[in-house]
Amino acid sequence: MTSDCIFCKILDGKIPSTRLAESDLAVAIADITPQAPVHALIIPRKHVASLNDLTAADRREILPALYDLADQLARDKGVRETGYRTLINNGESAGQTVFHLHMHVLAGAKMKHGFGA
Ligand code: AMP
Ligand code: ZN
């Protein structure tokens, strides 16, 4: 728990959220400003600011856990076969606004192609 981190507060139950799925290592919540019919954030329980802050050991443990939960969520939402997009914004130029690592999962409609500058 990092006291000034909004996602740590959400994980700690200090800020309300809609929980969609959880595992030992990560929690999936509904994004407060959804960009698609299904828009979840898969958040590791451990506070890590961004991909750059993962240790090699974290990378081997946390990243697979994010994809495991995305797979479970896609099954639960019935979008696994139709398709879903996963996205991690890493750093300010990439559009990261919350500096607690998280993976977006977007689905439920045909995604627009293209996500460059
Ligand atoms: P990013 O721009 O990749 O850092 O994504 C941050 C995401 O967090 C955005 O899509 C926001 O809509 C979402 N977000 C911010 N605050 C909350 C919150 N309190 N509950 C759920 N999602 C949030
Ligand atoms: Zn945090």
Keywords:
single chain, 117 residues, alpha+beta, HIT family, subunit A, 5-stranded antiparallel sheet, 5 strands, 21% strand, binds adenosine monophosphate, binds zinc ion
What is this entry, summarized?
The chain is of the alpha+beta class. The protein is built from two helices and five strands. The mean pLDDT is 96.
Description:
The chain has 117 residues and is an alpha+beta fold. It has one domain: 2-Layer Sandwich (HIT family, subunit A), CATH 3.30.428.10. 24% of the residues lie in helices and 21% in strands. It has a 5-stranded antiparallel beta sheet, with helices on one face. Strand 1 and strand 2 form a beta hairpin. The longest helix has 22 residues. The model has no long low-confidence stretch (mean pLDDT 96). The protein binds adenosine monophosphate and zinc ion (ZN). The site of zinc ion (ZN) has 6 residues, from helix 1. Adenosine monophosphate (AMP) binds next to loops.
